[in-house]
Amino acid sequence: MGEITAAVRRLCDDLVETMRASPACVGLAAPQVGVGLRAFCVDVTGHRKARSCHGTVVLVDPEVVAAGPAVAGREGCMSVPDLTGDVVRASELVIRGRTPEGDERVLQVDGFEARAFQHELDHLDGLLFLDRVTGGRLFPRKVYR
Amino acid sequence: MPLFAVLAVGADRPGIVAAVTGALAEAGANLDDTSMTILHGHFAIAMVVAGPDGLDVAAALAPVAEKLDLTVDVRPIPDGTPPAPPGDRWTLAVYGADRPGLVAAVTSVVADAGGNVVDLTTRVVGGPERPVYAMQLELALPDSVDGRGLGDRLRAVAADLGVDCTLTPADADVL
Asked: Does domain B3-77 correspond to CATH entry 2.60.40.60?
């Protein structure tokens, strides 16, 4: 993305604010709010499935450095309100990116937090969980928010 | 628009989906939920098709059915969107030596508990000498059903049948 401008920092603030406005939301990527930039936020604080937890994380130009063993899990998406499906994700992840302040940050995450990071990374590449569902099976989501 | 449940089955060959859905599109119909798969070399289609008014689905599919030797069944169903079966989603997997009555034995435990089978796939694998039966079920268990207790009962029945059985929560992580 190059230089982190004031506009990028504003976008990062908007992402966090929008994520927090929706109680069930644990991550949000710029393309989900109509902005074609490589930035997202994740926060799995308090989630019952979370193992690692780094609080509110905002990354610009994130990339995967290393990925651990794959594991399948049922996944849904705020941007695809009615469906869920089983998606294979790395159970552990080392991810690198820049903070909105421009500092490099490297995080080691696992479990639910690792799944959340990979889900948001996919959004940056234009991929939805629907593109990764195994077995071709889609299920209706139980709760319609 | 009127809704129809459409079933079609015939020996598998390339082009069945394209031909069936093409005939429906040409008739102005719209596909709703569908499930299609190969079962023992036969392609099985189950789908819900919407209107338009006055559409004769069977007539629209007749030429394709004739050409591809498909058995087709069409019946009207009530319109509107039915609610999803209530309850938490669980995945039930059962594997073991094939024998008659496996599916009935397992699903009757689920039904007796008040659980609802919302998806089921079974495959016979392992060859004719030692056939292995593999079942994968998606269950909706209302709040009144204790998932752990149901799992215990299923394992007991599975043990009697000599098969392995695993019931796990399938609640989705919404990201």
From this structure: no
Please provide the DSSP assignment of B53-75 as one string.
Answer: TT--HHHHHHHHHHHHT-EEEEE
- The reply to whether residue B172 touches residue A76, judged by beta carbons under 8 angstroms, is yes
For residue B2, what pLDDT band results from cuts at 50, 70 and 90? Answer: very high
A59-95 CB burial, b ≥16 within 10 A, e <16: bbebeeeeeeeeeebbbbbbebeebbbbbebbbbbbb
Domain membership of residue A113 as a residue range: 6-140
Residue among B118, B171, B173 minimizing CB distance to A115: B173
> What's the whole-number mean pLDDT along residues A39-47?
95
User: What chain B residue is nearest to A49 in terms of C-alpha separation?
Assistant: B173
Per-chain mean pLDDT for chain B: 94
- Please give the C-alpha separations between residue B60 and each of A106, B34, B67, in angstroms, as whole numbers: 60, 18, 13
| A104 in catalytic set | no
Domain(s) labelled CATH 3.30.70.260 in chain B stretch across 3-77, 88-169
For B40, counting Cβ atoms within 10 Å of its Cβ (0-12 exposed, 13-18 middle, 19+ buried), the class is exposed
**3-state SS assignment for residue A3:** coil
Interface test with B, best of A25, A124, A139 (most B CBs within 10 A): A139
Q: Are B44 and B37 in contact (CB under 8 A)?
A: yes
Q: In what order do the strands lie in the sheet with A27-29?
A: A27-29, A39-42, A57-67, A92-98, A104-110
Asked if A73's CB is within 8 angstroms of B175's CB, the reply is no
Task: With residue A32 as reference, give the H or E element that holds it.
Answer: none
ipTM over 0.85: no
pLDDT, tens digit (0-9, with 9 covering 90-100), for B135-155: 999 999 999 999 999 999 999
Tell me which of 2.60.40.10, 3.40.50.300, 2.40.30.10, 3.30.70.260 is the CATH number of domain B88-169: 3.30.70.260
